[in-house]
Amino acid sequence: MSRIQCPRCLRPQSHCLCPLIPSLDSRTRVLLLQHPSEVNHALNTARLAALGLNNAELIVGEVFADLPRLLNQPGYQARLLFPADDAQPLQAYGPSGDSLLLVVPDGTWRKARKLLHMNPLLAALPRVTLAEGGVSRYRLRKAPGPGALSTVEAIVQALQTLEAPASFELLLKPFEALIEGQIAAMGEETYQKNHGGG
Length: 198
Prior knowledge:
Oligomer: single chain
Order of helices and strands: EHEHEEEHHEHHH
Helix content: 25-40%
Strand order of the largest sheet: 2-1-5-3-6-4
Strand content: 15-25%
């Protein structure tokens, strides 16, 4: 028998995160393109980001037929948040000019690369990256390398850089509650043995 799910955050009703999800405005438009394998992931951080930002959209798929329309938003310059040798580090907005449409692929690194491969228009976008040295709060997963962040953490860091001094830290509240819940469910001893470096 399956547990009753919250239709909004997709968490079991008993662990609904909706009271913690903020409703934040941003100058930046965020377009999250989620690989289908992430939808039912227990820590679906892209969904949390999309729910918490008023100027965000989450689309699930592998091939996005609607990409030309999605990327051509008047008043926005589309940029792909994904590493590359020629990627430009994000910087705070100047007093004038277009805002960014920040396109964020969501999935494992392998699945995210597959999304780019299957959507040439996506792969052709100018790329931007986060400043070095971001430390993930995602204590349940071994990061593939330094600076590897969950999707919601990457979005928060990007928005804090672009829209300084505005703060988007509230987006991390449901994410942190999710992690605390997972740690509580596995038990402190198991957590320490597997993730605590003990």
